[in-house]
Write a structure and sequence with these properties.
This protein has 462 residues and is mainly beta. Helices cover 10% and strands 43% of the residues. Strands 11, 13, 14, 16, 21, 22, 23 and 27 form an eight-stranded antiparallel sheet that branches. Strands 12-15-24-17-18-19-20 form a seven-stranded antiparallel sheet, with no helix packed on it. Strands 1-2-6-4-5-3 form a six-stranded antiparallel sheet. The longest helix is centred in the middle third of the chain and has 11 residues, at 154-164. The structure holds calcium ion (CA) (2 copies).
Length: 462
């Protein structure tokens, strides 16, 4: 029934490819995938449009009585959706086809494949809409025999950006109904789920991710002996911030139990739970030589052992006020000394579970440690539990500088020869951005905190 003939060749100079071939089938058309209908004097002009439209993979062409043609550009092909190839007298189905003279790497050749995979040159791409941290996303891509996407050419970036356009980010509309989540999504400085998927948390002395019975999910477990963990240092003390984590202290409780901090000479900050007693947040302002100037020391609350609790420390720089929250309830507040302006010191890591000056370690579990760049209320802190509402503005690609600051690599080991940074990126904001997202708004790149949960792009080699 289907007579297949070579129809025409297009020179595609821009893609470094001399020609590309469309294959024609008479009397059939692909239905349900039309993204655009164009009318032109000859099929070859439609073919140009299809080749130039990243998500066009085939066309339905019909001749009009006046000699012109109409072409329906399809965002799929019979490779991906054979069932929608229907009999259609008078139509021709045209599909981009590979040509022998180009190697796949030089060609614009592309095709839609089953299960939402797309082939572009030698790579298979797929956008996953569910949201994962960079580490989770990479694990997932590897589990299906691929990796996070590496981008080596402009047409690959263009194509990935077109896939991203399918995402409707849940960022705030003009109504402001969702504005809390916009703030959180935009201003997450650091986020560690502490479930084993964080790519930049280091474990020491037997610290491990352990299934915790009340939640049947993994959390960071510290044994109260010597175990602790570290994150890279994050530059956040000189701005308004909210530091929040879920904690479960185990009996017998080690006291003090540092949740997060860096507490060694010169002391910097610590967020601590004490035995059956209180939460404490302490941070300091020091001069350039490290000499003590002022500090905030705020205590309150009565966290229980053997029960998960939500602990948050908030610094509102504008109001010069600090707050402690236990399970979203304010349990302490303190005004800052006048002119209080904590300085950051150039440490390279901060501690989870360790008070470094006395080697005090926590006995218990921690999860979902997060630093947000704004002073949140207790209600807002508790609403952060629903992380599906975290706003986002991009999707993960594979580029990262996890190994050496500023030295970017692709997961497939390829050299960074092509770049598409947004202006003023990468900026390693808060001195803590090591994973790269492609922005949904324009397809440019921005380094971000690896713990953000974003949609992501996987690749597989053809
Ligand atoms: Ca970085
Ligand atoms: Ca950035």
């Amino acid at each position: 029934m289907h007579l297949i003939t070579t129809l025409f060749y297009l020179p595609l100079v821009a893609a470094g490819c001399r020609t590309v071939k469309f294959i024609k089938e008479e009397g059939v058309a692909l239905q349900n995938h039309v993204i655009k209908t164009v009318s032109d004097s000859k099929p070859i002009s439609c073919g140009w449009q299809c080749a130039d439209t990243p998500l066009c993979f085939s066309m339905n062409v019909r001749r009009l009585p006046n000699g012109r043609v109409t072409c329906e550009l399809n965002n799929s092909s019979k490779t991906a959706d054979q069932q929608n190839l229907i009999l259609s007298p008078g139509s021709q189905y045209h599909q981009l086809a590979e040509i022998e003279r180009c190697t796949a790497d030089q060609c614009i050749y592309k095709d839609a494949l089953p299960d939402d995979w797309y082939r572009v040159g030698s790579k298979l791409f797929k956008l996953f809409h569910d949201r994962k941290t960079w580490g989770q996303a990479r694990q997932f891509c590897q589990s299906i025999g691929g990796d996070l996407l590496s981008i080596n050419r402009e047409d690959e970036n263009k194509f990935a950006f077109q896939l991203l356009n399918q995402i409707k980010p849940n960022i705030a509309g003009t109504s402001g109904v969702n504005s809390l989540f916009f703030i959180i999504g935009k201003d997450v400085i650091g986020h560690w789920f502490l479930d084993g998927t964080d790519v930049d948390v280091s474990l020491f002395n037997g610290a491990r991710y352990k299934e915790e019975s009340s939640r049947s999910a993994k959390a960071l477990y510290l044994d109260g002996q010597f175990a602790y963990a570290t994150t890279p240092a994050v530059n956040f003390l000189s701005i308004s911030f909210t530091l929040v984590s879920w904690v479960k202290l185990e009996d017998p409780v080690r006291s003090p139990s540092t949740i997060y901090g860096y507490w060694k000479n010169p002391n910097l900050f610590r967020f601590t739970a004490f035995l059956g007693d209180k939460l404490q947040f302490e941070f300091q302002n020091r001069d350039a030589q490290g000499g003590f100037q002022d500090k905030i020391d705020i205590r309150g609350g009565n966290p229980n052992k053997e029960i998960w609790f939500n602990a948050a420390a908030v610094w509102d720089k504008t109001m010069n006020k600090a707050y402690l929250y236990l399970n979203g309830r304010e349990v302490g507040t303190s005004d800052g000394p006048s002119g209080f302006d904590p300085t950051e010191f150039k440490y390279t890591f901060y501690d989870i579970g360790l008070k470094r000056d006395g080697n005090h370690t926590m006995k218990g579990y921690l999860r979902n440690l997060m630093i947000v760049r704004s002073a949140l209320t207790g209600e807002e802190i508790l609403r952060m539990k629903d992380l599906n509402n975290e706003a986002f503005a991009g999707a993960w690609i594979g580029l990262n500088d996890l190994r050496t600051e500023g030295d970017y690599h692709w997961p497939d080991g390829s050299q960074v020869t092509y770049e598409k940074w947004h202006p003023n990126e990468p900026n390693n904001a808060y001195e803590y951005q090591n994973c790269v997202q492609m922005r949904i708004s324009d397809g440019t790149w921005d380094d971000a905190s690896c713990g953000k949960r974003l949609p992501f792009l996987c690749e597989k080699k053809h």
